[in-house]
Write a structure and sequence with these properties.
The protein is an alpha+beta fold. The protein has eight helices and 17 strands. The protein has a six-stranded antiparallel β-sheet with strand order 9-10-11-16-13-17. Strands 7-8-12-15-14 form a five-stranded mixed β-sheet. Helix 3 packs antiparallel against helix 4.
C-alpha cells in the first residue's frame, strides 16, 4: 500500500495540531512526511491532458486502480501540508515548487453518479466496508461542506456509503466510516443512526462480535466527539482551524455538555447545550494560536474572563478571539441569565465589538 505511510502521517499531523509542538513538527513529522510524499513524486507522470496522473495503486480492501482516489487524496493532502509546515518552520525547501505543481496539476477526483469513484475507471462498490475512496471527505477534509460547489458530490458519496449494508450485516466496520462522514457533513441524525447501528455489533466490553478487535469501539468514541466539536481546516487554505461547537448534534439530543475536549490549535474546549440551545462555551488556549470559533450561540455574545478580550466577527456566527497562551474565555448570550460554570474566575463581561 503506497498510501499507508501518508495515512499514518495524517494521524501524526493531528497530534501536532492538537499540541502545536513545533519541535515534533520539525524533528519528526516534517522529514518523515517529506519522504512519504517523495515516493508519489517519483511515481506521478504527466499525460497528454497536461495533468499529473498516478499509475495503478491499491485502494484498501478493494483493488488496484489508476488515479486511485485513496492515493490522489493523500498525495494532495501531503503536498498541502508540507507547504504549510515549511512556512510554519520558515524552511526554504527545494521541493516547494514540486509540491505546488502537484496541488495545481493533479486531476480532479474521479466521480460518477454514485459520488467519488474508487479510481479513474472503477465506480465505488455497492457492498463494501472500507470507504478508502472517501478520504478526501473524512478525515482529510479536502472536499467539505464549506465549499460552495461540493454539496452534490458529497451527498451522492454519502448516500452510496450509508446504503452499502442492510440490518444484520457487518455494521460495525461500515459505520466506523459512515458515522464520522455524517458528522463531517453536519448530519447529526444520520450520525446518531450510524452510532446505534455500530453499537449493536459490539459486545459489552467493546469488542466487535466477529473478531477481538477494538477499532469499532474507538470509532464510536470518535463519532460522538465529532458530533460535539470539530476543528478541522481546509488543507488548501491558509486560515487556521475553525472550532465548531455542536456541529452535528442530533435532534434528539436537547441537553448536552462536555468539558476540556481538545481542538486544533491546542485549545481545551467545554460547552453546554440545554433545551436545544447552546448556553455557554469556554475556551482555554494552551499555545497562544489564533482562536477562530463558531460557538453556535444565539444573538449577541458576551465574553467573560480575567480581562476584556478582543473579538472580531469574521462572518455571521464566526469569530476570532485574541487569546494568549494560558488564557481562558467564556462565551455566552449577552441578554440571557444563565447558570454559568465556575471558570474562568473573576469575570468581566463585554459585548460583541
Amino acid at each position: 500500500l503506497v498510501g499507508n505511510l501518508p495515512w499514518t502521517m495524517h494521524n501524526l499531523w493531528m497530534q501536532y495540531r492538537y499540541s502545536m509542538d513545533d519541535a515534533m513538527l520539525r524533528e519528526t513529522i516534517y522529514p518523515l512526511l517529506r519522504r512519504a510524499i517523495n515516493l508519489y513524486l517519483h511515481m506521478v507522470r504527466e499525460e497528454p491532458d497536461g495533468e499529473l496522473h498516478l499509475p495503478p495503486t491499491y485502494s484498501p480492501e478493494t483493488g488496484v486502480f489508476a488515479d486511485c482516489n485513496f492515493d490522489l487524496a493523500l498525495f494532495k493532502w501531503g503536498c498541502h501540508t508540507l507547504l504549510k509546515a515549511s512556512q510554519r518552520l520558515k524552511l526554504d525547501d527545494p521541493l516547494i515548487p514540486r509540491w505546488k505543481a502537484v496541488v495545481e496539476r493533479l486531476p480532479d477526483y474521479p466521480v460518477d453518479e454514485h459520488g467519488f469513484r474508487l479510481g479513474r475507471d472503477k465506480s465505488s462498490s455497492a457492498n463494501h466496508q472500507h470507504f478508502s475512496n472517501l478520504l478526501m471527505i473524512y478525515p482529510l477534509h479536502l472536499v467539505n461542506i464549506e465549499q460552495e460547489d461540493a454539496a452534490e458530490v458529497l451527498k451522492r458519496s454519502f448516500d452510496r456509503a450509508r446504503s452499502t449494508v442492510g440490518p444484520g450485516q457487518r455494521q460495525a466496520m461500515v459505520q466506523a466510516h459512515v458515522g464520522p462522514i455524517a458528522a463531517a457533513l453536519g448530519l447529526g441524525d444520520a450520525a446518531l443512526e450510524s452510532l446505534r447501528r455500530l453499537q449493536g455489533d459490539l459486545y459489552p466490553n467493546g469488542l466487535w462480535y466477529e473478531s477481538p478487535c477494538i477499532e469499532s469501539t474507538l470509532a464510536a468514541a470518535n463519532i460522538i466527539q465529532d458530533m460535539l466539536i470539530q476543528s478541522w481546516s481546509d488543507p488548501a487554505l491558509a486560515e487556521p482551524g475553525l472550532i465548531r461547537i455542536f456541529p452535528a448534534v442530533p435532534s434528539a439530543w436537547k441537553d448536552v455538555e462536555f468539558h476540556d475536549l481538545r481542538a486544533e490549535g491546542a485549545f481545551l474546549v467545554s460547552a453546554k447545550r440545554s433545551a436545544g440551545k447552546t448556553e455557554w462555551v469556554r475556551i482555554k488556549s494552551l499555545a497562544g494560536e489564533p482562536c477562530r470559533v463558531r460557538p453556535h450561540l444565539p444573538g449577541e455574545i458576551r465574553l467573560m474572563g480575567e480581562h476584556a478580550f478582543k473579538m472580531q466577527t469574521l462572518s455571521p456566527g464566526t469569530y476570532q478571539i485574541h487569546l494568549k497562551q494560558g488564557e481562558a474565555v467564556l462565551l455566552c448570550p449577552a441578554r440571557e441569565s444563565l447558570s454559568l460554570p465556575a471558570q474562568p474566575s473573576s469575570p468581566r463581561s463585554q459585548g460583541n465589538p
